[in-house]
Amino acid sequence: MLSLFLGLAAAEPATIIVTGRGLSAGETAGAAVVVLDQNRIRQSPSGRLEDVFRDAAGVQSFRRSDSRSSHATNQSITLRGLGGNASSRALLLLDGVPQGDPFGGWITFPAYATDRIGEVRIRRGGGSAYFGPGALAGTVELESAVPAEGDTARGAFAYGSRDSLDGRASLLLSSSRRFVTVSGAFARGDGFIPIVAEDRGPIDRRAPYRQASGAARLVQEVEASTEAQVNVSAFSDKRDRGVPFTANRGRGVDTSLRLVGKGRTRWSALGYAQLRNFESDFSSINAARTTSTQTLDQYSVPSRGYGFRGELLPRVGTADLRIGVDGRFVSGQTKELYQFVGGAPTRRRVAGGRSDTLGLFAAATVPAGPATLSVSGRADRWSIRDGTFFQQTLNGPTLTDTAFADRSGWQGSGRVAGEVRVGRPLKLRAAAYRGWRLPTLNELYRPFRAGADATGPNPDLRPETMIGGEIGGDITLRGGWTMSFTAYEARLDGAIANVTQGRGPGTFPIVGFVAAGGTYRQRQNLDAIHSRGLEADLGGDLGPLEARLSYSLVDARVRSSGAALSLDGKRPAQTPRQQASATLGWRGPSEWRLSGTVRALSSQFEDDLNLRALRPAVTLDGFASAPLGRRIAVEMRAENLFNKTVEAAVSADGVIERALPRTLWIGLRLR
C-alpha cells in the first residue's frame, strides 16, 4: 500500500479515466428525483447529512432533533407520510451499499462526513424492483466524491457555540488508471440542555456529544472498461441525553468491493460487510425531575450485515434491459441488564435472531419517440430464523428461554412508469408500484423504554407491503430554472407501529413495571396507513443569485381494527402535514458565498393516539464564505439563527424536549 501511495504521488497529472461511479441508476423514467450536488452539500450550515436531506421537503427522520442530541435509535429516513416508526421506510445507499443498521434499521448519520459525499439523489416514491426490499417510501442514493469534484487536499475546521469543534480533512492521490481518497472527520460539543427551561429540574444538564469517522477508497482500472472500487470506513458515535444514565454509543466498520464493467455490455458485481455494535443506558425520572434511576443497561447490541449484488445490462435494439440478483443477510442480539435494585441490576436479558432476503429482478426501459416506458419486477425469498428471547436472574434461575419458530415466504415488487415530452418545456410522468419491507430484528425482539413509557417487541410481525401511484411533471423554464410537481397516493398494508396497550401503574409482558403516567405499547401490524399528498420543487439561477424551494403536503391516516381500533382515522406519529424549505443564495467570485435557508414544519403528534402534539416550527439557517487567499477561505455558519424552540418530543407527563437551539460557527476551509 505504501508503494501504491508513493507511485500515485509521483504520477504526472493526467485525465482521470476511472470514474469511481457505479452503473447508471435504474428505473429513472417516470421518477420524481431531487439531486443535491456537492456545492450545496458543502454549504450546509450544520455540515451534517440529515440537514442536507431537508432540502427536499418530505424527507424526514423519526425525530426533529439531529444526531447531536437525538437518541441514535430514533433516527431514520422516510418520505410521503409513511412514518410512525423509528425504522427507515426509505432505503439509504452509499455507492450501492444499504446503510441501515443491520439490527434496527436506524441511520447513524455521524458516520457520513459530508465532504466525502459527491452527490445525493433523493427518489420519492417506492416499489422499486431495482433497489428491492426497504424502498417503500423512496430511495436516497449517496455517491462518494470523485477527482473531478474535489481538490488534491482539502480541510475545514470550525469552532462553534457551547465549545463545539467540527473538523474534517481529505486527501486525493490520482493517476490516469487509479485514485485513492482518504478522509476523516471529528466533531464534539458540550451540548445544550434538551428539556425546555420551564420543565427542567435539578437533574437536567447539558447533553454532550463526541463523534468521529474515517474512510478510505481505492478505485483502480483492472482492464480496459473495467474498474474495481474498494471502500473501507469506520465510525464512533457517543451521545448523552442530558440526564444521568442516558449515554449511548455506536461503533462500526463497513467494507465493500464493487467491480464495474462499462464496455459494450455493462455489468456490475458488489459484495459488502457491515460490523456494528451499540450500547445505551436508560433511566426513570421522577415527576419533580430531582432523581434519575437507572432502569436498563443495554450493554451490547452486536450486529452483522452481509450482502451481494450482481447485474447485467444488455441492450436489445433501442431498449435498455437490466437483470440481476441480490441478497442481504443480517444477524444481531440485544444484551441487557435490567430490574435495578439499589442501583444494581438483578436480571439479564438476551434477545435476537437472523433475517435474510434473496431476490431476482429484471427491468426494461423502452424509448418511443417523445415517450419512454419503464417496466420492472422482482421476486424475493425472505426468512426470519433463530429468534430467541432469554431472561434470567443474575447468578440465578432462568426466567424465560424461548426459541421462536422460523418463518419464511415470498414477496414481490414491481413498477410500471412512463414519461412523455410535451413540447420543449414540459415532461409529464406517471408511475404505479408495489414494494415491501421485512420487520427489523429490533422490532421483532427488543423491548425499550422512553421516559416513563415502555414498548414491547413482537416476534410475530409480518412484512409490510405497499401499493401506490403518482402523476407529475417537470418544467424547464428560461434561464435554466426547473420546476417539478407530483401528486401521489399510497397504502402501506401491515404497517408496523407502536400501539398503546395499557397505562401505568402496572406490570406488562416483557417490559415489566410501568409507573403511573407511563404508557405500555407493543409493536403491531396495523391494517394500513393511507397517505396521499402533493410535492413541488423549484430551483434555478439568476445571474449570481440562486434559489431553491421545496414543499410537501401530506394527508396520512391510520386504518386499523381489533386491538388497534382506537387508532383508526388518526395521523401516524411523527408525521407533519406540511414541510417546506426555501434557500436564497449569492455566489460571487472565488470563494465568496452567502445563503439563507428557511425551513418550516407544521404540527405533528408524538404518539399513536394523537394526544401529545408538537407545535409548528420555523427556523432560519445561514452560511457565508469569504476568501482570505487563493487556497483559504473563512466560513461563518448559523443554525436556528433566531433561537426558535423546536419541540422534538413530549413525554406522558407533558415534559417537552427541544431540538437544537441557536448555534453559531466560525472556521476556515483549506484546499
Automatic annotation (TrEMBL):
<keyword id="KW-0812">Transmembrane</keyword>
<feature type="domain" description="TonB-dependent receptor-like beta-barrel">
    <location>
        <begin position="245"/>
        <end position="628"/>
    </location>
</feature>
<dbReference type="InterPro" id="IPR000531">
    <property type="entry name" value="Beta-barrel_TonB"/>
</dbReference>
<feature type="region of interest" description="Disordered">
    <location>
        <begin position="565"/>
        <end position="584"/>
    </location>
</feature>
<dbReference type="Pfam" id="PF07715">
    <property type="entry name" value="Plug"/>
</dbReference>
<feature type="domain" description="TonB-dependent receptor plug">
    <location>
        <begin position="29"/>
        <end position="139"/>
    </location>
</feature>
<keyword id="KW-0732">Signal</keyword>
<protein>
    <submittedName>
        <fullName>TonB-dependent receptor</fullName>
    </submittedName>
</protein>
<keyword id="KW-0472">Membrane</keyword>
<dbReference type="Pfam" id="PF00593">
    <property type="entry name" value="TonB_dep_Rec_b-barrel"/>
</dbReference>
<dbReference type="InterPro" id="IPR012910">
    <property type="entry name" value="Plug_dom"/>
</dbReference>
<comment type="similarity">
    <text>Belongs to the TonB-dependent receptor family.</text>
</comment>
<dbReference type="InterPro" id="IPR039426">
    <property type="entry name" value="TonB-dep_rcpt-like"/>
</dbReference>
<keyword id="KW-1134">Transmembrane beta strand</keyword>
<keyword id="KW-0813">Transport</keyword>
<keyword id="KW-0675">Receptor</keyword>
<dbReference type="InterPro" id="IPR037066">
    <property type="entry name" value="Plug_dom_sf"/>
</dbReference>
<dbReference type="InterPro" id="IPR036942">
    <property type="entry name" value="Beta-barrel_TonB_sf"/>
</dbReference>
<keyword id="KW-0998">Cell outer membrane</keyword>
<keyword id="KW-0798">TonB box</keyword>
